[in-house]
Amino acid sequence: MNHRPGGELSRRPLHFIWICDCSSSMAGDKIQTLNNAIKEAAPLMRDVANDNPNAELLVRALKFSSGAQWHLASPVPVDDFRWGQNELKADGFTDMGHGLTMVAEQLRVPPMSDRALPPVLVLISDGQPTDDFESGLRALMNEPWGKKAVKVSIAVGEDADRTVLQKFMGNTEVKPLEANSPERLVKMIKWVSTVVLKEASSPASQSGAADLQLGNIAIPAPPDDGPSSAADVW
Amino acid sequence: MSGNAPAAAVEPLWHLVQGGATGRRHTESQDAFRSWADTEDGLPAVVAVADGHGSSRHFRSASGSRLAVEAACRVLVEILASTPPTLPEAEERLRTDAPGLLVEAWRKAVADHLNAHPFTPDETTGLERQAGAVARRDVVLDPVLAYGTTLLAVTVTEHFIFYLQLGDGDILEVSHEGVVARPVPPDARLIANQTTSLCMAEAAKYARSAFRRITDGPPALVMLATDGYANSYRTDEQFQKVGSDLLEFAQTGGLDQIRDALPGWLEETSSGGSGDDITVALLYHASALALRRPPTLVVPSRDPDEDRTVSVAAAPRAPGRPVGEVAPNAASGQEAPPESDNAPQDRDDALRANGVPVPEAEDDSPADAAAIGGGTDLQAQRGEGNREEHAPAPEPAGPRPATIPQDVAPLDAAAAEGALPVRSSVPPQVGRKIYFRNLGVGRERAGGLALAARLAAPLPEFRGRWAYVLAGLVVVLVLAVLALWIRPLA
């Protein structure tokens, strides 16, 4: 009998993008902890990907400070994803809006495929935007994949602007993740890399609201360490 | 196929192949499939596929998809039965009314199901555990959400094809040349895992449709597929190649091989691709499958309506050939259909197939009377569904109402394969006077001419339009004799 009809089979691509604040306020302990946390998260992400053979996990990273640029420009298959060789360094302002605009450009179709899984965008910041955050967010939400993306934000330290981080996440029940200590930041990075990634890599179909802008997946409740404590150092 | 269908004299115009695969994450498919066709002449036919949403708040989507395909068959057949017999009116009615009526029928079916089977505590607490209190509240306030599903449906008649889609999934049309097209306009919002759905408020406004007049010949293949199929390919071009490949495979290997291989192909595709449920319905037009037969000649006549396909060295029909199998052309004259106990019925069907309405009052078989206008569920035909539906006897006059499938058939992919029932081996006579023979329209031609044609039918050389010519000559001759006889008296 004939071979299977159709062309090449392919797993559905799942784009995971770290969006990292590299402003000068992140210098020192924060940026080093962030580097270490992402480094430690890489094997966890591989494990999650291996558990879902129907998703092709591709990782990228963008950094914003005075302007923004891709830290990992090309989507890297998770098996090849390494963080240690070229770590983030902190310096400059907090041009978060610029960063979101650059992400939005990459979420257009093309280069994105319309058969992809909803991308996961993780925004990590410790301060307030120094540029036009709203226009960046608007550019992101103007892209269909920007609307559909699973958006999670991590507030590093008490000075982080939780209002903009919540706007980035949208009107979900989930609040920006709090990371007021190195341990907490590592924990949140790992949580996003595993729990959220797992949910995003096998989303069940669902009806959309009238404007089809509901969150694509139900982000599980994040781990809760209780109220602020003496362990909070940021 | 109806047990009283005269398989010896006619062959199907459309052949249906259906298959499915259950996704990696599911213990059972949440897709559903259903088809319906008129038992008398095979048209109209309705085929529907639905994809129940997998999200936890749609925890009854398997029932929702089943109710959707049933509602689609029922509503589309009802519309066909009550539509005036002109193409513009049919198009207007289907495009305008079908989405709303379908959503209404589905919601009614969901309400009935919910009344008979209220949510259990396990269902609601399970929903809250998986998706939170807000999700539970949403479903309790709007229980239809639990049944969320998409729907793809196609209606084929002799003169048009109507496509209806609500939500994601794919409808492909493949031409005889293997060119693949999407007849239904795209919806740019349908990316990721969110889709428009029958369970949404004002769902009808999200329906997309296409009405295709068969003026230049029908497509070779129509394919309906849930979104798990397209999502398994890297690009849309790679997916669309499925359509052209399936046409080529059918022409070179035959439908039986497609039926045998399809489940395995879909399993492989889901496993190596999306990991999602896949359900596929394939409608092959007989003219496309005819390409694999021995060489044929199309003999033109002065009247383009009268073209006939002539088989050259056609193989004899094997005894017991399943109805739906491509068979030698019975109209060619090269192979006379074997006489059987159904010979009178065979003659009637041959007359009908050639555009000669046969008054139903002349059908003397009670079984036949039940079958005429009766709806047949193709799943039921193939045994596993244990149903062969017969509608109540139709009204003796006026447009013949198409019968509405009433039962609830479980999805059984293995059961869902077969051929749409009987049609003449005569190619579709495109361009002749438009009427819906299957709806009884055109019956005004029944009468003296039809009777004369019927009497002429036993002679193969007088079948079809020649029967009318002969009958006309007889009538003219009688009138002339009468005139000559009356004139001296006057």
Structure description:
The complex is a heterodimer of chains A (234) and B (490). Chain A has 6 helices and 7 strands. Chain A is an alpha/beta fold. Chain A has one domain (12-201): von Willebrand factor, type A domain (Rossmann fold), CATH 3.40.50.410. Chain A has a 6-stranded mixed beta sheet with strand order 3-2-1-4-5-6, with helices on both faces. Chain A is globular. Chain A starts with 11 loop residues before the first strand and ends in a 27-residue tail after the last strand. Chain B is an alpha+beta fold and 490 residues long. Chain B has 2 domains: 11-444, Phosphatase 2c, domain 1 (4-Layer Sandwich), CATH 3.60.40.10; 447-490. Chain B is 35% helix and 17% strand. Chain B is built from 13 helices and 17 strands. In chain B, the strands form 4 sheets. A 6-stranded antiparallel beta sheet of chain B has the order 8-7-11-12-2-16. In chain B, strand 5 (151-156) and strand 6 (160-166) form a beta hairpin. The longest helix of chain B is centred in the first third of the chain and has 30 residues, at 87-116. Chain B starts with 10 loop residues before the first strand and ends with a helix. The model of chain B is unreliable at 1-8 and 293-463 (pLDDT under 50). Classes of the chains: A alpha/beta (234), B alpha+beta (490). Chains A and B meet through helix 4 and strand 7 of A and strand 9, helix 6 and helix 7 of B.
Write the SSE topology.
The complex is a heterodimer of chains A (234) and B (490).
Chain A: E1 12-21, H1 29-51, E2 55-65, E3 67-77, H2 96-106, E4 120-125, H3 133-141, H4 144-148, E5 150-156, H5 162-169, E6 177-179, H6 182-201, E7 206-207
Parallel strand pairs in A: 1-2, 1-4, 4-5, 5-6
Antiparallel strand pairs in A: 2-3
Chain B: E1 11-12, E2 14-21, E3 31-38, E4 45-51, H1 61-82, H2 87-116, H3 121-131, H4 133-141, E5 151-156, E6 160-166, E7 170-174, E8 180-181, E9 194-195, E10 208-213, E11 221-225, H5 227-230, H6 236-253, H7 255-272, E12 278-285, H8 286-289, E13 296-299, E14 308-311, H9 343-353, H10 366-371, E15 375-377, H11 378-381, E16 418-419, E17 422-423, H12 448-456, H13 465-489
Helix pairs in contact in B: 1-2, 3-4, 6-7, 12-13
